[in-house]
Amino acid sequence: MSNPRETHGFQAEVRQLMQLMIHSLYSHREIFLRELISNASDANDKLRFLALGTPGLLADEAELAIWIDFDAKAGTLTIRDNGVGMNREEAIAHLGTIAKSGTAEFFGRLTGDQQRDAQLIGQFGVGFYSAFIVAERVEVESRRAGDPPEAGIHWESSADGEFSIEARTRAQRGTSVILHLKADAREYADPWRLRALVRRYSDHIAFPVRLPKEGATLEYEAVNQAQALWARPRAQISDDDYKAFYRHISHDGVDPLVWAHNHVEGKREYTSLLYVPAQAPFDLWQREAARGLKLYVRRVFIMDNAEQFLPLYLRFMKGIVDSGDLPLNVSRELLQQDEQVEAMRGALTRRALELLAKLAADDQAKYAAFWKEFGRALKEGLSEDPGNRERILPLLRYASTHNEGDEESVSLADYLARMKPLQERIYYVTGENIGAARTSPHIEQLRGKGIEVLLLGDRIDEWVMGQLPEYAGKRFKDASRGQLELGALADVADQERVDAALKESKGLLKRCKDALGERVREVRPSTRLQDSPACLVRDEHDLSESMRRVLQAQGQAPPPAAATLELNVAHPLVRYLEGLPRGEAFDELAQVLYDQARLNESGQIERPAEFSRRLNGLLVRLAGAQ
Ligand code: ADP
Questions:
Q1: What is the pLDDT of residues 440-472, one digit of tens each?
Q2: How far is the CA of 86 from the centre of ligand 1 (A)?
Q3: Rounded CA gap, 244 and 249, in Å?
Q4: Each residue of 203-250: pLDDT tens digit?
Q5: Ligand 1 atom closest to Cα of residue 95
Q6: Residues within a 6 A CB radius of ligand 1
Q7: Distance 210 CA to ligand 1 centre (A)
Q8: 3-state class of 525 per DSSP?
Q9: Alpha-carbon distance 22 to 118, whole Å?
Q10: For the chain, what are the domain ranges?
């Protein structure tokens, strides 16, 4: 054969990954076995799938399985499957490079902190290269199903940055991974250790994992259950089984928070097993990142990342769905149009939301962990999936004026339970971050009256909240817009004060408006302020400052930004202003108040240097006057 031995360098990322694995993953070294068995299981799954269209592929050996052999004296351990196998090109591509999306991002997020990096590697999927955690040399012998024995290959590497590949005749299809164990890893060539590890990590694998029978040569026995986990009755599955299966399908090294395993019968028959991870994957916010469930049809693996079964905002959910009705040759295109899939998507979406509701009810600490990682994604559902709004709303969590700190832990139900008698609105305020929202002048009066205000500090919040009409019959109210709509909570005294201010300060309000011109729509006495001299108020449907900035960044010209300036007529600065006639000093101070209000609102003003100059001028004058 014209297939000489060739030496290739590993892709730089693979080299880096291998180094990291060898040096950072020493605490859970045994995971290599889980990873290799998982790959063997995937290879068998793939062959079973291909054989649906080409049954001949299974001809010489119909039963798919995984074998583990060891030689304690030689210090070798071999994991063999009779799955799809690899040809020369595939071995070079798959065992020399990383083809995953998000690879660059993954490497960008490595910190050098071994523990954190080890977790990241876990999330990224350590896969085949984990063999080098325990092996100083790894050989792979493989033959692609359907190829003749001469097309077999032999791959080998000692983790020195290179691997070699050559042709080697192989009688069976599938792959053997042969580990030459490091001196300090010889313990893995032990039948008891192997048995225990397979039971612990690979019991859920749907193919038999066979070890040599004790005291017999060339006889094997399966040590796992060898049945698809989700097909077993729930009562027979332990939490550890569920967690191990989660690791197998998600490559996540951290246990899931919660899961739901359901079998649906009737018009459609399917089984689903959904997990809520504890940690966001590094590519949660990448548009092109792979997402979706693993799809099986009557136990036969069909595809990874079937996106059609859950909406985008639930992209963090992991799991499998096994349909009893879909055709085995179902394709991605078919899934997109299928009515049955649509109905399953609806049901699985509800199932996922119910699972979250249950988590929120059963375990607040876990739910808080979930919210921290995935709350932002879930919020997208309010606009993406209006049909489920009533299910999503109770799952939201907010920071609030009733709590200290930035932690988002207040639900709408909490808010409702604490509302003042006769309170008609759910008040909220948004800012660049929660701290900015908390100190917003717009909520001074509400605070003064002890009315709770939800604090939102995410750019999309303003937009999301603007779309929400109400919760449990109470309308949402942005405290920075329009009137506060206090209804029965408004004091008669408040109104009288405003009326009086309107009358007494008419001159001041007009002078201010004249001084600020088009920049403000109107100047009026405030019902919101208590400590601050001024704030800007937008009408209900005006664009917010942050939305304006988003539009501007996209090259669009948003409509003019005039807002109403509210003055706290009781504030000493405003009283001082009132004493001034229209003139340079008046105009400068009016402008300073306006700029301050803008700063409070958005953290930005158009000409900061001018603002500083004015403020300094004012300070100098006041200091001199003393
Ligand atoms: P992952 O399994 O996450 O894709 P791995 O590093 O574990 O990453 O494996 C890389 C690729 O090598 C796999 O996607 C697969 O194509 C191939 N591979 C690994 N092990 C086997 C095997 N036992 N049989 C066939 N192909 C395999």
A1: 999 999 999 999 999 999 877 888 888 898 999
A2: 9
A3: 9
A4: 888 999 999 998 777 899 999 988 899 999 999 999 999 999 998 898
A5: 12
A6: 39-40, 43, 81, 83-86, 94-95, 125, 127-129, 175
A7: 20
A8: strand
A9: 10
A10: 6-225, 231-364, 397-489, 492-622
Q: Of 614, 579, 578, 584, whose CA–CA distance to 596 is shortest?
A: 614
* Residue 164: count of CB within 10 angstroms of its CB: 14
Structure tokens at 527: 């019902």
- Residue-wise pLDDT tens digits, 301-345: 899 999 999 999 999 999 999 999 998 888 888 898 899 999 999
Report the topology of domain 492-622. Four Helix Bundle (Hemerythrin (Met), subunit A) (1.20.120)
Residue 39 CA to ligand 1 center (angstroms) comes to 5
User: What architecture does CATH give domain 231-364?
Assistant: 2-Layer Sandwich (3.30)
Give the number of the atom of ligand 1 that is nearest the alpha carbon of residue 177.
23
Q: Could you give the CA distance from residue 310 to residue 163 in angstroms, rounded to a whole number? A: 41
List, in sequence order, the alpha helices (H) in 517-606: 545-553, 572-578, 584-602
Q: Is it true that domain 6-225 has CATH number 3.30.380.10? A: no
Angle between helices 492-504 and 506-516 (to 10 degrees): 70
One-letter amino acid at 194 equals L
Residue 355 in tokens: 């699972």
Mention every residue, 6+ apart, whose C-beta is less than 8 A from residue 625. none
The pick from 42, 48, 153, 247 for probing ligand 1's pocket by mutation, whose C-beta has the most ligand atoms within 8 angstroms, reads 42
Q: What is the DSSP letter of 411?
A: -
For the sheet with 318-323, list strands across it.
258-264, 270-276, 318-323, 293-297, 300-306
The CATH class that applies to domain 397-489 reads alpha beta
